[in-house]
Automatic annotation (TrEMBL):
Annotated protein name in UniProt: Sugar O-acyltransferase, sialic acid O-acetyltransferase NeuD family
CDD domains: LbH_AT_putative
The entry's keywords: Acyltransferase, Transferase
Protein family (similarity comment): Belongs to the transferase hexapeptide repeat family.
Keyword rRNA-binding listed: no
Site (Increases basicity of active site His): 141
Organism of derivation: Maribacter ulvicola
Chain residues that bind substrate: 10-12, 71
PglD N-terminal domain boundaries: 3-83
GO terms assigned for molecular function: acyltransferase activity
Pfam families: PglD_N
UniProt KW Ubl conjugation keyword: no
Length: 243
């Protein structure tokens, strides 16, 4: 059984831990988190240190890989970038909860999370570091680009094309054949009946564009003003965002 670590020890990290435990394929060694005290315990597992400790942790605990448990899509990308800068050959795993359903002839990249009740229907493609959250469903022939996400109870019809870093929020319904660009967010409870491009926030019944989004703007936060975020901005983002 492979030894793995979880990057991110907040609420999303606990849910990812639950998936890994119930899946039973990996031996979880602990959490890596820059903002939790080293040695503290989360759900019975120790916070082992931060990303900068990764080379030591890999050798000390014979780590075979890990998964990034960060809910915000752009912040998850920044964490992956940081990990690969420190450990270029690090291996990222997928986790599939036993109550998730993966259909016929789907293709899956690395670093993805399939929560309880998630459904991915036939012929779909999930690229890297995506989240299909609790009771979310992706219809047949759907494509999720890297770092995109479906929040709990999203219902997406067949043929969805979801762009990189984009998020569909809680309880959204999406009709068949919809395309959504990069860095876009569909607000909770919306009904999507039309295509949307890049860098927009849309919501409503039916969903309409309400404003332009900045690249890296954390949609899971109450903060209103965010500019384009780079790798060096990561510490500020994490300190202001519940992940």
């Amino acid at each position: 059984m492979q030894n793995v670590i979880i990057f991110g020890a907040s609420g999303h990290g606990s849910v990812v831990l639950d998936c890994l435990e119930k899946e039973g394929r990996y031996n979880v060694i602990g959490f890596v988190d820059s903002f939790k005290k080293k040695g503290s315990r989360i759900n019975g597992y120790q916070v082992l240190g931060s990303e900068v400790d990764l080379p030591y942790l890999i050798n000390r605990y014979h780590i075979d890989g890990g998964i990034v448990a960060i809910g915000d899509n752009w912040t998850r990308k920044l964490i992956v970038d940081r990990i690969l800068k420190i450990a270029p050959n690090f291996s990222f795993i997928n986790t599939v909860h036993p109550n998730a359903v993966l259909g016929k002839d789907i293709l899956i990249g690395c670093g993805n999370v399939f929560m309880p009740g998630a459904i991915v229907n036939a012929n779909s493609i999930i690229h890297d570091f995506c989240i299909i959250n609790t009771n979310a469903s992706l219809g047949h022939d759907g494509i999720m680009d890297s770092y995109s996400s479906l929040a709990p109870s999203v219902c997406a019809g067949g043929g969805l094309r979801l762009g990189r870093y984009s998020a569909i929020s809680l309880g959204v319904n999406v009709i068949n054949g919809i395309e959504i660009g990069q860095h876009s967010v569909i607000g909770a409870g919306s009904l999507v009946v039309d295509h949307f491009g890049d860098n927009i926030m849309a919501y409503g019944l039916p969903a309409k564009i309400v404003r332009v989004r900045a690249v890296g703007e954390p949609y899971l936060s109450t903060h209103k003003k965010w500019q384009s975020c780079k790798l060096e901005d990561l510490d500020e983002i994490q300190s202001n965002l519940s992940i």
